[in-house]
Task: inverse folding
């Protein structure tokens, strides 16, 4: 793991980082407009960069984030150690 990042190096915000992703699926509606079901056909693909939630500038690559910073929500441990 690398040195912890506690704020955006560009604007100083401590709000966090974001990554855009896309998922492919289908929402199924009844003819009266109610959502009946949803099917995820293809799982998410992620953009290449983690950006600041406030200023939008690039902080690191998504791969670098997953390798050095991402934490499993169930175990509280880093995903790739």
Result:
């Amino acid at each position: 793991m690398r040195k912890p990042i506690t704020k955006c190096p560009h604007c100083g915000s401590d709000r966090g980082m974001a990554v855009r992703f896309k998922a492919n699926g289908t929402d199924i509606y009844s003819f009266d407009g109610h959502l009946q079901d949803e099917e995820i056909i293809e799982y998410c693909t992620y953009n290449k960069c983690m950006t600041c939630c406030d200023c939008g500038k690039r902080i690191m690559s998504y791969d670098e984030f997953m390798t050095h910073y991402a934490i499993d929500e169930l175990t509280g441990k880093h995903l790739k150690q």
User: Anything to note?
Assistant: DSSP finds one helix and five strands in the chain. Residues 62-68 form the longest helix (7 residues).
